[in-house]
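Here is a protein:
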Amino acid sequence: MKYSINGYIKAIPEKRKELLGYLLEAAKEMNAVESCHVYIVGVNNEESDNVYVYEVWDSEEAHKASLSLPVFQLLIQKARPIIAGLESYPALMIYGGKGLKE
């Protein structure tokens, strides 16, 4: 069983591209985090400010621990001034599906 979270981060007006860059940088860094199985970043072109993120982790604890890693603390610090809000959908316990390696 895996832990999944998803939702979107709303950038202040005209800053979505910058926020997207930070999140794509985070996605690249996730390659070194073994407990992270999926970290997908995307946008809906009909929305001008939101960046969506979908993540799958070994556990909720693994996700929380990743937020304290220095590289992610730096990215959070850079992005914080351009974040207007967050919306998270219910966390899911993932039992299987395409794309997950057991």
About this structure: The longest helix spans residues 16-29. Residues 2-94 form a domain with the Alpha-Beta Plaits fold (CATH 3.30.70.100).
